[in-house]
Amino acid sequence: MAEAKSNGDSSPAHITVSQLTMAYGSFVLMHDLNFAINRGDVFIIMGGSGCGKSTLLRHLIGLNEPAQGDIYYADENFTRADPERRRELVRRMGVLFQSGALWSSMTLAENVGLSLGEYTDLSAAEIRHVASLKLALVGLKGFEDYYPSQISGGMQKRAGLARAMALDPEILFFDEPSAGLDPISSRLLDDLILELRDSLGATVVVVTHELASIFAIGNNSVFLDTESRTMIAGGDPKELLARSHDPTVRRFLTRGAEETA
Amino acid sequence: MAAGALAFILGENSSLEIRLSGAWSLRAGLPEAASFQHELDQAPQVKTVAFETAGLVAWDSSVLAFLAEVSELCRARGIEMNRAGLPTGLRRLLELAEAVPEKKGARQEAGEASVLERIGGIAISATGAFGATFAFLGEMTLTVGQFLRLRARFRSADLFLLIQQCGAQALPIVTLISFLVGVILAFVGAVQLRQFGAQIYVADLVGIGMIREMGAMMTGIIMAGRTGAAFAAQLGTMKVTQEIDAFTTLGFSALEFLVLPRVIALVLMMPLLCLYADFLGVLGGAVIGVGMLDLSWATYFRETAQAITLADILGGVFKSSVYGALIALSGCLRGMQCGNSSSAVGDAATSAVVTGIVSIVVACGIFAVAFYVLGI
Fold first, then answer.
1. CATH architecture classification, A1-92+172-183+201-261
2. CB-CB neighbors (< 8 A) of A93 in chain B
3. How far is CA B58 from the centre of its chain?
């Protein structure tokens, strides 16, 4: 909180998390999370399996309520905002869920076009045109009329990304983008993420534990630790690898090759 | 191959040798760790345990499980375990099993909760579920309000598909069941009424029974089992695959987009299905009347027409519409409350049918009293 205030309006912080505690009922998953995500960052949320990375992402996009603490977008308190305002803020975000989460009763073009139809005054033909364009951006030109069940997992994920980008969001969230993808598709998706960040000027937040991705795309991060139930490191992952002295972080970033414990 | 054998040899210097020989396999059973414990009880002076496995022909997890228990016992009693005599594979597996110490608190306490504790737990979760149900109904009321002000957002294509699914596609099963219900009502009535020559009143019995109560009720129960369960399974699966989250993060309300069209479809289709069921029930009664009681078709239908009033028909149709709302709401409620696993989807479908049928029967009771008081 203090950090967020001191930076003031001139701060480049796009998202600020302050004193966040996440809990399921009385079970505290993580406590005292404090970090800031700057505009244009590719921010990595990393940590071991089951430590609450995806839950943190759900908090950031308002699907879960913090047990304590606040989340700020620019300088606006997202956690305490009224529902109408929250919906407006959420509309500026794009989310790619772990499984893609495409709506199975709609074609890819309908999946991508749904929010366009809702929040813009475009005609049906224009929506279709924009949806095709978004699908083309993720390499799915010509698949407009396929249903999600007719395409492969990797394609579903890319279609999910096209849907997330439909409204040209300021922030893109990715939940385990490389889960279930072969190394090459996963690499292509990484490249796509960087490309989108550069061309759209969006801030990107990625939940992942894929080391290759972390070093390839991340320029800022937070490391969640299961043992102490809080964050134990943050910053550029490459810097962390070079400088961090924390045994848990080192073990993670070196795939356990350095047993510094 | 010789079956596995286990022997203990008490040596000098307070040492115990465990001799494993023959072929051990899980199918044949585990070496008994209890015998080792017994041996230790007999010889409390034992300070080291060693192994002799020269005669061991084959081993699998059975021996490993035994060794893990031996190791545990040794640690508890402060006995040194000399593993040099074990085959390399066994030794390494044993080390692997012990590499990560048991996480404290990871083991679920299977402790007996007291009766009071359990009652308290049930009461707390019941109030929670009660609150969640009312929250859902409240939000749904607001959503319906939006719909009436023409501000609700959903895809009309979805609505038409749902109307087809819970309207036209339900006709075969509704046909079969309501025809048979008409036959059964007529049959039961015929046997009784024939005793004093009042066969003609079978038409009244079937007509009033079907049109006032059974038509709406049977359609409701069919639709609860057919469509209510389907709604719960659809929404439950969408919850598991995060499709509902995807709606929320795009600023869409899942209630408007998913629940509202389902409620509308069922509320619109139930009255039509009910009228159809009424007609087929009467037809089923007529088949018995004509076939068993020697009434003519014309007589039967004239008697039916005299017995029933427009109010009877409208009352039944109105009830069916309410039942439709109840079925759709309970199906969607259970679907939206679904947990995050495939078994939770099954539970949601089951509980949607139960909730649907229970609420139909309760509503039917309330209607019976209300119609009586209002003199309909």
1. 3-Layer(aba) Sandwich (3.40)
2. 249
3. 46
